[in-house]
Each structure stands twice: as C-alpha cells, then as structure tokens.
Amino acid sequence: MNAQFKRGIVELCVLSELVMEDMYGYKIINNISQDIDVNENTIYPILRRLTKEGYFTTYIVESDLGAPRKYYKVTEKGFNYYLELRDSWDQFIGGVYEILNKGGKKNEQILERFRKRTKEA
C-alpha cells in the first residue's frame, strides 16, 4: 500500500479496533496487519500519543504466557474523536471516489475513454 495513503488512516484503524474491544498492542498490530502493512514502529507511537491525549486509558492484565499485558480502552473522548475521524474519512473518500470515477469505474472503461480522447487530439 502506498505510504502516503497509509499514513493518514492508521490512527483511525487503531481507534476502530479499540472501539470493538479492549486490546493490547500486539493484538492491535496483528489485527490491522491482516489488511494493511503495519508494524510496532507505526502502532506504538500512535497508542502512546492517543493515551497521552486522553483518548485511551490503560490497564494491566496478567498473562499465563509471560509478562503482563497492557490493554488499551477507548474513553468517551476517544469514542467521540473516532466518530469525528470516521465522518471526515467518509467525506474525504466519497469525494475521492467522485473524482476517480468520472472517467469510469472499471479500468477498461477508463482506458477506452482515454484512447478515444487521445485519438481526437
């Protein structure tokens, strides 16, 4: 995935995961990385910043498999922020699709229009 596309949306993806359920960092990374190429160097700074800004709280859960895990939980402030970001994303992506689909929705349609236009020039 293009790094510029990814940069702006990963924060919303983290919030989206945590709106569904409380999670620890490694699980968030695993869930998101199933669809988008991310790693801990991307996710943990977002978790730290959003926690510092009051969008998440954290709590520790003991683990049978090793060290205790820090879980992240969305606060009401975080949930409202998620809804704002989601609305902004929906408006943005809707506008992008309007622009991209002017030439057609399928590559074949776009190619046909391009060939037709360049023959006339």
Describe the structure.
The structure is a single chain. This protein is of the alpha+beta class and 121 residues long. The protein has one domain (3-93): Winged helix-like DNA-binding domain superfamily/Winged helix DNA-binding domain (Arc Repressor Mutant, subunit A, Orthogonal Bundle). Helix content is 65%, strand content 16%. It is built from five helices and three strands; from the N terminus they run H-E-H-H-E-E-H-H. It has helices at residues 3-20, 25-33, 40-52, 76-100, 107-120; strands spanning 23-24, 56-63, 66-74. A three-stranded antiparallel beta sheet has the order 1-3-2. Strand 2 and strand 3 form a beta hairpin. The longest helix has 25 residues, at 76-100.
List descriptors.
121 residues, alpha+beta, Arc Repressor Mutant, subunit A, 3-stranded antiparallel sheet, 5 helices, 3 strands, elongated
The number of distinct helices, counting runs of at least 4 residues, comes to 5
Mean pLDDT: 89
Rg (CA only): 20 Å
Q: How many strands, which pairing sense, and closed or not: the largest β-sheet?
A: 3 strands, antiparallel
CATH hierarchy: architecture = Orthogonal Bundle
Distance between the termini: 34 Å
Q: Which CATH class is shown?
A: Mainly Alpha
Structural class: alpha+beta
How much helicity do the residues have?
Answer: 55-70%
Strand order of the largest sheet: 1-3-2
Order of helices and strands: HEHHEEHH
* Contiguous runs where pLDDT drops below 50 for at least 5 residues: none
Q: Give the CA-based shape.
A: elongated
The CATH topology label is Arc Repressor Mutant, subunit A
Beta content: 15-25%
Oligomeric state of the chains present here: single chain
By CATH, the superfamily comes out as Winged helix-like DNA-binding domain superfamily/Winged helix DNA-binding domain
Number of strands: 3
Number of individual domains: 1
